[in-house]
């Protein structure tokens, strides 16, 4: 076993994913997920080296902190031989705000900056902070080797004309209200993988990366750098999502509050948790369920059609930012990787920018990188998302630098 492994922690509000990775060989040794559904907390850990799976169920673990402690206890108890070779812990952090523009070794100053950015990611950053604090205490020998890798970092190359909102300028200078984007770790991974598969150096690569999952975002990447992205101050802006509304006229909020008397907290809940394809269909936020009903339920069809139309519009809009050359369009994320119907409906509206689908290739689903374009088209690729590899490599690089 390699002596230099990285533990990656990806803490969402409803689940915690963790992996032990060899960042150089890009091999995952251990992959785990803990989530609480109704009154049961379940844990699954796959050991790829021994080809074994651990499955445990617990009474609902009440606090998030206890959930993280549980993970560390199990790792220490049952996966000690891997943990002993871990040289750093990489934490995915959704929002780094204006200040945290690249991955950082965590210290009390960085913790305070992550805390400051919680206002822009209330469903994510507070959970990251809890996990980081447990990690710092539980594995003392790695205390100085916890690294934060930010989903906003890749988008720090956005030019002002992309990241500024057309509101009075002082809201940016005084309160840092601007577009930050999200999913940056995966958009960066997609950029690296595209460079390999298209045989083009990153600094010459012009692509549009479509991360379509329960949260969705599109990024315009020119010369390997993010120049525009659909998520904004928070991950609520942009595409229609599972439960999030994406772009809407802000006047809807005034109308709901002033005319309908809905409290501002309730409006926030409606737009983040009860909207998107769930809100339109009243059926589900799970695209698999909506697809099953696509031909038999008008609202299921409508919600998917609205989702796809918005994606096509963003892609065509971003094609205008490509400085005259679009090298590829990439689909990634749970929907982008798996749904041939949704890819078909999106790409069907892109003929004007030279995108045409190969129907048979699009129907394949082999969990691998694949081209799905026809011969006359610009390349269209499906690339499975892999944030963990980037988090592991960034953590490894920073830890090695600080040891030397
Ligand atoms: P997250 O944003 O939480 O990381 P994922 O990228 O894993 O989410 O995407 C989850 C979404 O992908 C869910 O809405 C799920 O329904 C959708 N999805 C997964 N598999 C398929 C499929 N075969 N067809 C359509 N949608 C799918």
UniProtKB/TrEMBL annotation:
Coiled-coil ranges per UniProt: none
UniProt: ATP binding residues: 17, 211-215, 286-288, 334-338
GO molecular function: acetate kinase activity; ATP binding; magnesium ion binding
Catalysed conversion reaction: acetate + ATP = acetyl phosphate + ADP
Cofactor, free-text remark: Mg(2+). Can also accept Mn(2+).
Binding site for substrate: 92
Keyword annotations from UniProtKB, A to Z: ATP-binding, Cytoplasm, Kinase, Magnesium, Metal-binding, Nucleotide-binding, Transferase
EC number annotated for this UniProt entry: 2.7.2.1
Family annotation (InterPro entries): Ac/propionate_kinase, Aliphatic_acid_kin_short-chain, Aliphatic_acid_kinase_CS, ATPase_NBD
Compartment list: Cytoplasm
Site (Transition state stabilizer): 183, 244
Residues binding Mg(2+), per UniProt: 10, 387
GO biological process: acetate metabolic process; acetyl-CoA biosynthetic process
Pathway stated in the Swiss-Prot or TrEMBL entry: Metabolic intermediate biosynthesis; acetyl-CoA biosynthesis; acetyl-CoA from acetate: step 1/2
Assigned GO CC terms: cytosol
Cofactor(s) the record lists: Mg(2+); Mn(2+)
Active-site residues, as the UniProt record annotates them: 151
Cited HAMAP family: Acetate_kinase (MF_00020)
Function statement: Catalyzes the formation of acetyl phosphate from acetate and ATP. Can also catalyze the reverse reaction.
Subunit-structure text: Homodimer.
Family, as annotated: Belongs to the acetokinase family.
Protein name: Acetate kinase
Source organism of the structure: Buchnera aphidicola (Cinara curvipes)
Gene it is expressed from: ackA
């Amino acid at each position: 076993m390699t002596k230099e492994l990285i533990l990656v922690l990806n803490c969402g509000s409803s689940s915690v994913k963790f992996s032990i990775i060899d960042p150089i060989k890009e091999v995952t040794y251990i992959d785990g997920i803990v989530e609480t559904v109704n009154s049961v907390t379940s844990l699954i850990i796959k050991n790829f080296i021994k080809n074994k799976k651990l499955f445990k169920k617990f009474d609902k673990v009440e606090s998030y902190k206890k959930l993280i402690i549980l993970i560390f206890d199990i790792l220490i108890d049952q996966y000690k031989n891997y943990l002993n070779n871990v040289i750093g812990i990489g934490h995915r952090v959704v929002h780094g705000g204006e200040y945290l523009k690249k991955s950082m070794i965590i210290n009390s100053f960085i913790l305070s900056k992550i805390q400051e950015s919680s206002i822009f990611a209330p469903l994510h950053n507070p959970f990251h902070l809890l996990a980081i604090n447990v990690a710092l205490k539980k594995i003392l020998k790695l205390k100085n080797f916890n690294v934060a890798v930010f989903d906003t970092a890749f988008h720090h190359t956005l030019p002002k004309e992309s990241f500024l909102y057309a509101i009075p300028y002082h809201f940016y200078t005084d309160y840092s209200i601007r577009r930050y984007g999200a999913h940056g770790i995966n958009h960066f991974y997609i950029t690296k993988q595209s460079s390999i598969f298209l045989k083009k150096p990153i600094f010459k690569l012009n692509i549009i990366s479509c991360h379509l999952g329960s949260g969705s975002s599109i990024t315009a990447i020119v010369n390997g750098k993010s120049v525009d992205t659909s998520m904004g101050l928070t991950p609520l802006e942009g595409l229609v999502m599972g439960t999030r509304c994406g772009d809407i006229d802000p006047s809807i909020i005034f109308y709901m509050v002033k005319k309908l008397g809905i409290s501002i907290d309730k409006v926030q809940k409606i737009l983040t948790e009860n909207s998107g394809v769930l809100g339109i269909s009243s059926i589900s936020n799970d695209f698999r369920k909506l697809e099953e009903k696509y031909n038999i339920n008008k609202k299921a069809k409508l919600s998917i059609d609205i989702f796809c139309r918005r994606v096509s519009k963003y892609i065509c809009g971003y094609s205008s930012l490509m400085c005259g050359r679009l090298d590829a369009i990439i689909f990634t994320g749970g929907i982008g990787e798996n749904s041939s119907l949704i890819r078909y409906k999106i790409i069907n509206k892109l003929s004007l920018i030279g995108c045409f689908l190969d129907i048979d290739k699009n129907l394949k689903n082999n969990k691998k990188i694949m081209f799905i374009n026809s011969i006359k088209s610009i390349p269209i690729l499906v690339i499975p998302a892999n944030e963990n590899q980037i988090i592991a490599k960034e953590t490894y690089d920073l830890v090695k630098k600080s040891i030397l």
